[in-house]
Amino acid sequence: MIKKKLVIIALCLLALATQAAKPVKVACVGNSVTYGYGLQDREHDSYPVRLQQMLGEGYEVGNFGHSGATLLYKGHRPYIGLPEFHQALDFKPDWVVIHLGLNDTDPRNWPDWKEEFIPNYRALIDSFRLVNPEARILVCKMTPIFDRHPRFQSGTRDWHAQVQKAIEQVAHGAGAQLIDLFTPLHNRPDLFPDALHPNPEGAKILAKTVYSALTGDYGGLHLPPVYSSGMVLPRDEPLLLEGRANARSKIRRVLSKDGKVVDEGETFSRADGTWWMEMSEMKAGGPYTLTITATPLNPDHYRFYYPEKYPYLLKNLTKAKPQTLTIDSLYFGDIWLASGQSNMELRVDQCNTLEQDLADAKRLANLHIYNMPARARTDAVEWDDSVLAYTNELRHMEFQGWKTASPESVRSFSAVAFNFGRVLCDSLPDVPIGIICNAVGGSTTESWIDRSTLEWEFPNILRDWRNGDFGQAWARGRMTQNIAHALNKESAAYNPLQRHPYEPAYLFEAAIAPLGHLPIRGVIWYQGESNAHNIEVHEKLFTLLEQSWRKFFAQRWRSEFHKKHPLPFYVVQLSSLPRPSWPAFRDSQRRDVHYRTKRPVGERLALQALKHTYGYELESEGPTLRFAGRGKDNDIFLHFDNADGLTCTKGFEIAAYDGMFHPADIKIEGDKILLSSPAVKYPVLVRYGWSGFTDADLRNKQGLPASTFYTKTR
Description:
about 30% helix, 25 strands, alpha/beta, five-stranded parallel beta sheet, ten-stranded mixed beta sheet, globular
């Protein structure tokens, strides 16, 4: 009897050993992207081959991709009618990764047969479950199609978005895991030579994304880089913390002060590794310590992965250890973003108020700064291979960490941003103020707008930007000079799709997206020199920039205040320089290039914030035109707001309908100014400060100047 039991146990152990030795079969089903079209060495570089290398022992990955394949059964090349489909079924895969849909965006397919996409996809999934009822199905959101595609604006962009939504519905309805292949690659157009197929580096990113989805390994616990010791988080509103961890980990947060817990909570990371949790509303103050811990779940919770059938995977999961991130010296207050180009970038130690600024820094213990300078300047130089490489990888910005204001820390910080923060700290003495500066000299407005917004609202500016006429000639020339080595066909770094900070969408991807939806209180913006040549285009672009940032930074805010009060932007007009287009551009900015007196700029931005964001009763603006009318004696009268104590001696010009302007005589009556000229009999047009460099001097009693403007009488 005992002998019989031993035999049975031995047979069971043998069966288990045989089962343990059996590899997990992974079928990569798809079209040309899966196949590896366009890769010189697809047998080495295609994503399924890379995936096999990453998974290693215990897995068998099969490439069942076919170029041109459609998901739609009535498409021009349905996958179910191809040999690869039947080969994939014969493979009897344990896991099936499906990436189809790109070719369904063809005008021969989607317009006529889109209603059949979801049922056809469900039928494809069912066919794999028929050959293996326990098959794990993973459905992929499609890789991007970029603006360079010949049909991008004639339908592909729109149909691609519609197919993506349908794929999400398929995953939900079929109980399949959804893999996002779009987001990891949408910010890397340089990896898609034909705007559709990834190069070897793109295929590697694709494989890594699929690997993480299959194994739950997302590199462990991490937060956006700006979440670090010494930081400021928003006060007086619930805060949504966001991050990533390995899939299905328990995430625990503990907020403490002086060793006592003041807030805590738990959540779990999802299958895609993302997690978020809401922190309690905190009053201004600090310092606190925030500890976040990610703990892998007990292997019993991984039944979705069938660990009893795949002991190799179970072995890997049980190796995972808890991870902890700690943010020390955390404060609750207000965070402001200072951005733009070189006038915002100009450092405290480059300005003529250096000694005064350094003296102020000694007393500003409540001011916390985070500097994000560019790793390589856009000076008139040719970049070397290392700069070209990290720029392509969106690593152009340096994340220097949070620092408390001091003479040492502020020297290399933005002078405008420092003085803005100085005034806020003086006016809000009990509120910690955080200032992040990520300005880049010479940067264009379009470089700060997210790619999706440009693709849908201004796609033409994306196409061949370096040679197009939307960008200013100076900026296009400087970019070409910086990346000349990459444009040389004889160079080892040759890359016709080389990235640059002036390129549309680049700085959003490299300098805004890494902030990770940080709930900032507002934006101070100083930019425009690289767009002043085309006022009409800039007006559209800046509107898109505001929309882009408000959507990004408000994406997960739940505060009712922020629903009613959009993210504020406080904008500096261009300074006085003898450039022909600048008066009209300043007028456009109304609806001080490298001068060294930045202290007043920061102060005036702070006045705007104190009045409009914080509700202070103070004068924050110079005289602002309210109404222009014709007088009785061949004169024009102008009424102004913010007009207490008006003073002015020069700067006004008037004209009749012929548009011939002449200097105007100025008479001030309270909040009204009368303008006349013996050379203009019937004046109807008025302009003020209308030159690149202007000495116009209209101010109110607070000394705040009026903006350049142009108007017609009513």
